[in-house]
Amino acid sequence: AQTVTQSQPEMSVQEAETVTLSCTYDTSESDYYLFWYKQPPSRQMILVIRQEAYKQQNATENRFSVNFQKAAKSFSLKISDSQLGDAAMYFCAYRSVNTDKLIFGTGTRLQVFP
Amino acid sequence: NAGVTQTPKFQVLKTGQSMTLQCAQDMNHEYMSWYRQDPGMGLRLIHYSVGAGITDQGEVPNGYNVSRSTTEDFPLRLLSAAPSQTSVYFCASSYSSGTILTEAFFGQGTRLTVV
Fold first, then answer.
1. pLDDT tens, A60-71?
2. Best residue of B6, B25, B50, B101 to probe chain A, by most A CBs closer than 10 Å
C-alpha cells in the first residue's frame, strides 16, 4: 500500500521570502501522480501543482515549484516570494495511474508573517 | 459553472440519527469520491464511484453507505451517527481524458458534529 508522509506539522515564513514544504512517499509503482493541495481557512481544497512521475522535469506554477526526486521518493514544494494569502494548510497527495483515489499526507500548516 | 456542490455546509446530529450528505457535480465527471478530514490525519477515502451504478469502498467505509444512480449525484448516508463520525466531509470528482485522469475537483466540505 502507498503512504504519504509530511514531517513538518507547521512552518512559518516571512513575507517575500522562500519556504520549502517536505513530502515523502512510499510506493512500489513506477508510474503515478503527485499533487500539492492548499486548504485556506475557507476549507476549500485548491490544487496548487501536479507532477507526473514519468516526467523528469519538475513542475512549476508561477511562484510554486516542486523538487521531485523519484529515486528518493521525495516531492517538496517551494513557495517563492511568499504572500500573506499563501497562509494555509498544505497537503501532499499521491494517486496511482488509472484511479481517482487520492492518498493524502497529514498536512503542513504554513504561517506567513508580514 | 457550479462545479462540485455539497449540502449542507454544517450539520449537528444526535447519536443514532441518520442523515444524507448530498454531493452534486455539473461537469459530467464519471469519477466521484467521498473523503473525511480529521485533525492530524489528512483526508481519508470513504467510498468512491467510477460511474453510475458502480461504487466501491475506500479506506474507512464503516458506518457509511453510498449509491450512484446518476452521473451527477453521489450521496453519502450515515446510517446511525456516532461521535466518531464527527469530521469534515469532502466530495470530489474527476474525469478521464483519453488515458489521462484529471486532478480531483473538491466541494466546499460539510462539517458534521455528532453529539
1. 999 999 999 999
2. B101
